[in-house]
Amino acid sequence: MKFLVLLWLCLAAPCATLRYWVEPCAKPESGCHTGDPELAQWAMEAWQGASAGHLAIEKTTDREKAHIRVFWSGGREGLYGEARPILVDGVRGAEVYVLPPPETPNDKDALLRDAIVYLTCLHETGHALGLAHTAAFADIMYSFQYGGDIPEYFGRYRRLLTSRKDIRKHSGMSADDRRRLVELYR
């Protein structure tokens, strides 16, 4: 049924199709947890859902054919992720590097860690889709270079969650994030 709705939306309006690939959690030094690739997938699904049918995003097992490639990398203090532009078959994309937060003995809130990883995936894949940084603290594309209360940035999202599954219910995007995405892909 989901496929038929997506097909109908693509036939009803111009629909860009992008492929993504997520690196498996194979390197312990990357800080990746077993469930992190699923968080990256949920981020991609959130962007597709926010596109008002103008964007189809498909998972692929072939890294070289993926427009968006998500890698896990050991984190550095104060840095959460990075996106580096690439072209695949003449289409803009990016290699996205997510730096999961290092764990400390005081970390007892697994949902906070998941929220940080998910929001980082969402932000960096937003760059891969062509979205730029904003100065609006409510936006997922907000840049920490503008300052602001970074613990609160993640904390406000964390407070929406009572379980890991809630991440799929709360996209983490603002109305302006959605509007900018639709403007790019209509």
What does this structure look like?
Helices cover 37% and strands 18% of the residues. With 186 residues, the chain is of the alpha/beta class. The chain has one domain: Collagenase (Catalytic Domain) (3-Layer(aba) Sandwich), CATH 3.40.390. Helix 3 packs across helix 4.
In short:
By secondary structure, this protein is of the alpha/beta class. The chain has a single domain, classed as Collagenase (Catalytic Domain) (3-Layer(aba) Sandwich). Helices cover about 35% and strands about 20% of the residues.
Spell out the key features of this protein.
186 residues; alpha/beta; Collagenase (Catalytic Domain); 5-stranded mixed beta sheet; 18% strand; globular
The coarse silhouette is globular
Gap from first CA to last CA = 24 Å
CATH topology label: Collagenase (Catalytic Domain)
CATH architecture title: 3-Layer(aba) Sandwich
Secondary-structure element series: HEHEEEEHHHH
Helix count, DSSP H or I runs of 4 or more residues: 6
Cα-based radius of gyration, to the nearest Å: 16 Å
| Strand-residue proportion | 15-25%
Which CATH class applies here?
Alpha Beta
CATH superfamily: Collagenase (Catalytic Domain)
Strand order within the widest beta sheet: 2-1-3-5-4
- Structural class given helices, strands, pairing? alpha/beta
- Give the low-confidence spans: 4-12
What average pLDDT do the residues reach?
89
Total of domains: 1
For the biggest sheet, the summary is: 5 strands, mixed
Q: Let me know the number of strands.
A: 5
**Percent helix among the residues?**
25-40%
